[in-house]
User: Fold this.
Amino acid sequence: MLARLRGWARAIKRDVHALWLAARDPRTPWHARALAIGVAAYALSPIDLIPDFVPVLGYLDDVILVPLGILLVVRLVPPGVMAEHRASAAAAAAGPASRAGAACIVAVWCGALAGSAWWLLG
Assistant:
């Protein structure tokens, strides 16, 4: 069962990346593009509709809203376009991680932490 959950989580991650790619593709209808951006932004955002620290309900919105949003957008995107972007997302996930990207994220968090400390202590 744990292996099935991991596979499902990988598929969700791949589909979120594929939706982001499809949102930037001119072959995708405008309404599907707008919804794809919204679903991908919600899935990747640290801000949730219900905060994760709320017992049970905190993760329930991630488990229900994100897959339903993905399902809706996948139905709106032309099948050939979605298959192409799923393949691209799977290839990107199999490739090496970007160390420069990780360094940028760490730098942003360190800057935010330093700015918060300066604001609170200053």
